Amino acid sequence: MGLFVIGVICNLVLADLRSWHRQYLDSIRIINWAFAHRSEFSDTLKLKATLESMTEYKGKQTTLWPWSTTDNMVFTAFAILTTVPVIFGLAGISSLAVWLRVAIYIVVLGVDMVCVFRYLNFKIEQGLGYKTWILNFDYYSPETVDVFANRYMDIKVHDDIPTVYQKTGGVVTVPTQNGRVVMIRIQRADGHEHWELPRGYMETDDADHVAAARRELCEELNVRDGDVVSVEDLGLISSDSGLIVGDIHVVAVEVGSDWSAELQSDEGIVAVQLFDLAEVDRMVRDSVIIDALTIGAIGKVRARR
Q: Where's the Nudix hydrolase domain (predicted)?
């Protein structure tokens, strides 16, 4: 009888191990998924929320039967071996008819199988509902605090380091006419006027960065579709990769000879002027132009020549 008790305990331990194995597989799956998709998340808290949603158990575990998988068949074999000592341990059973001894063994085996497989199903379902320990690692990282948010950006502070997350992306346009660069002089937050290239955030109606560039030029310089000769997206640029997470593109726009600038004072623009590239270079060198996005966009144009 002692061997039977030991066998039952071993079956219960195996069920616990199956549950832990389920959790281990979930942990490996989470690690692999997080590694494969790490570039899609700039915020660890958003990544963690996604992983928690993935591991949330929303259904009922499919019942495990003795013959359903290799693991279950091994578990069944162990349960059968567990009940064998019962036959030899029952007093007077040897004097019974063979069919009666077989019936007793089947009953004992059936009760044992029902008990251990109910426990196994319980432990597996418990394992599926368990929030894997992998997710707890992020709990020990410094808290991220939301500082500011509007339709264009979120500002967060993580471990005393602020980060600006742009929601919509943006464009820096490089309008040219007959080889000369069209620049605006605009009042900025530092209280000074600066020579810059037209730029702005993307709006929800903008199909892409090129569409956003066309809209910005229309708003700031009154450039209509009929004035545009050619448009080219020159690719990404960043004003400060250590502070800002965004999707800003440089878009070169050539306008026709018939276009003439119309000052849009409601945009804060105080002057519009055309400059040769050599003159723009001098203005950058002499710190007349100090805007990082403008300097970077001019560099993009120069690199394409």
A: 163-297
- Domain limits of the chain? 2-140, 163-304
The whole-angstrom separation of Cα 227 and Cα 173 is 15
Instruction: Look at residues 48, 57, 50, 53 and name the one whose alpha carbon lies nearest to residue 134.
Output: 48
CA distance linking residue 274 with residue 254, whole number of Å: 13
Choice among 61-65, 82-86, 156-160, 241-245 with the minimum mean pLDDT:
61-65
* Chosen CATH of 163-304 out of 3.10.20.280, 3.50.50.60, 3.90.79.10, 1.10.3210.10: 3.90.79.10
- pLDDT at site 288: 97
Residue keyed to tokens 């194995």: 21
- Start-end of H helices in the chain: 2-36, 44-55, 70-89, 98-128, 209-221, 277-285, 292-304
Residue with tokens 């929030």: 131
Q: Output the CA torsion sign for 50, 51, 52, 56.
A: positive
Residues 6+ apart with CB under 8 A from 70: none
Q: How far is CA 257 from the centre of its chain?
A: 46
Under the banding of pLDDT at 50, 70 and 90, the label for residue 92 is: low
Q: Which residues pair with 153 in a beta bridge?
A: 166
Give me the pLDDT at residue 128, please: 60
Would you state the structure tokens that stand for residue 61, as one six-digit string? 């575990």
Q: pTM score > 0.85 for this model?
A: no
For the chain, the maximum distance between any two Cα atoms, rounded to a whole number of angstroms, is 115
Distances (CA, A) of 182 to 32, 187, 254: 49, 17, 10
Distance CA 81, CA 43 (A): 53
